[in-house]
Write a structure and sequence with these properties.
By secondary structure, the protein is of the alpha+beta class. It has two domains: 65 residues, Orthogonal Bundle (Transferase Creatine Kinase, Chain A, domain 1); 245 residues, Glutamine synthetase/guanido kinase, catalytic domain (Creatine Kinase, Chain A, domain 2). 33% of the residues lie in helices and 16% in strands. The protein binds adenosine-5'-diphosphate and (diaminomethyl-methyl-amino)-acetic acid. The site of (diaminomethyl-methyl-amino)-acetic acid has 9 residues, from loops.
Length: 344
């Protein structure tokens, strides 16, 4: 763990490197949260991984106050959300205007919408103890097992899962990868694989990851471009889980997550979409995604590459905008991307 002001390589583009000035560092380096989380803990991932997009993690809700000198400028830069702004929520599917933009299934391979959630009054993953993590797994998997109807499913712990099954689940985009180096440096892989697992229904359209980057990742996904159906399923699932598990929430920052990019709605709505012609001109492609506040990822998750002209397109803003707006951003951008691809 570094106890000196970090020097980043010239090509480093992370928000940590941009916003961690000498002055900010000196003001925060000796501070500690109730969970014993320090500035050194918060920035370790971005120091080890200079290709990080952000590079900082919170260990608990208090990290966002104690280390506000670093987190606030990053939050403003990423979400366009100022310390005087307040968060808003709207999970009403009726307010979403999203008829399937690709009914012939020519462009959209699949749609996925997830939210991150963490359990109230406990540290976040980077500062959680082994016992607390195990307790979360027991409590959350127990609550999920009581779900009924189309949300009914089964919990599969990673510990004891065969290498073949986990490989298949990862390849099919259902399960998180082991050994992610960004999470490793953030302290999020401690005691791996204990306490981690995945719950899913038979169709694998409703899934919950337990104890990955956040304690819960609640996911709705399916093949094709029926974005409204995916959103509606997710909203129902969140409502059911919220009846049983108390989530960490603040009026100002919304749902509290370990990475500042996920604060607020903690929602990432994405499609895997084939854009082989448009992506030949990355500048034109990015002009459309920037206009709609969208992010481009590869198809095996964050920090992965595209394959065969298929990209993961998702909303970038999550704080200070409602859940409906997150999905609407993605939808509106996807409509324009498809129109552009068609015209080429
Ligand atoms: P997250 O959304 O949880 O931040 P990642 O970008 O790492 O995380 O993606 C997690 C997994 O979800 C990866 O396997 C990725 O391929 C898959 N995924 C993301 N979006 C879609 C989508 N629209 N369709 C199918 N799989 C998806
Ligand atoms: N938190 C994580 N998913 N990501 C934003 C890492 C990074 O590139 O900094």
């Amino acid at each position: 763990m570094s106890d000196k002001f970090p020097i980043f390589p010239k090509e480093c583009k992370s928000m940590l490197c941009k916003h961690l000035t000498q002055e900010v560092y000196q003001g925060l380096k000796d501070k500690k949260t109730v969970s014993g989380f320090t500035l050194a803990n918060a920035i370790q991932s971005g120091i080890d991984n200079v290709d990080s997009g952000i590079g900082v993690y919170a260990g608990d809700t208090e990290s966002y106050e104690i280390f506000a000198g670093l987190f606030d400028p990053i939050i403003e830069d990423y979400h366009g959300f100022k310390t005087t702004d307040s968060h808003q929520s709207n999970l009403n599917p009726d307010d979403l205007k999203a008829p399937n933009p690709d009914p012939e299934n020519e462009y959209i391979v699949s749609t996925r919408i997830r939210v991150g959630r963490n359990v109230a009054n406990l540290p976040l993953g980077p500062a959680i103890t082994r016992e607390q993590r195990k307790q979360i797994e027991a409590d959350v998997s127990g609550s999920l097992s009581a779900l009924t109807g189309s949300l009914a499913g089964k919990y599969f712990p990673i510990e004891g899962m065969s290498a073949e099954i986990s490989k298949q689940l990862i390849e099919d985009h259902f399960l998180f990868k082991a050994g992610d180096r960004f999470l490793q440096s953030a302290g999020l892989n401690r005691d791996w694989p204990e306490g981690r697992g995945i719950y899913h229904n038979d169709e694998k359209t409703f899934l919950v990851w337990i104890n990955e980057e956040d304690q819960l990742r609640i996911i709705s996904m399916q093949m094709g471009g029926d974005i409204a159906e995916v959103f509606t399923r997710l909203v129902t699932a969140i409502g059911e889980i919220e009846k049983k598990v108390p989530f960490s929430y603040s009026k100002h920052l919304g749902y509290i997550t370990s990475c500042p990019t996920n604060l607020g709605t903690a929602m990432r709505a994405s499609v895997h979409i084939a854009l082989p012609k448009l992506s030949a001109d990355m500048q034109a492609f990015q002009a459309i995604t920037d206009k709609h506040h969208l992010q481009i990822r590869g198809i095996h998750g964050e920090h992965s590459e595209s394959e065969g002209g298929v990209y993961d397109i998702s909303n970038m803003r999550r704080l200070g905008v409602t859940e409906v707006q997150c999905v609407q951003d993605m939808y509106d951008g996807v409509v324009e991307l498809i129109a552009c691809e068609k015209s080429l």
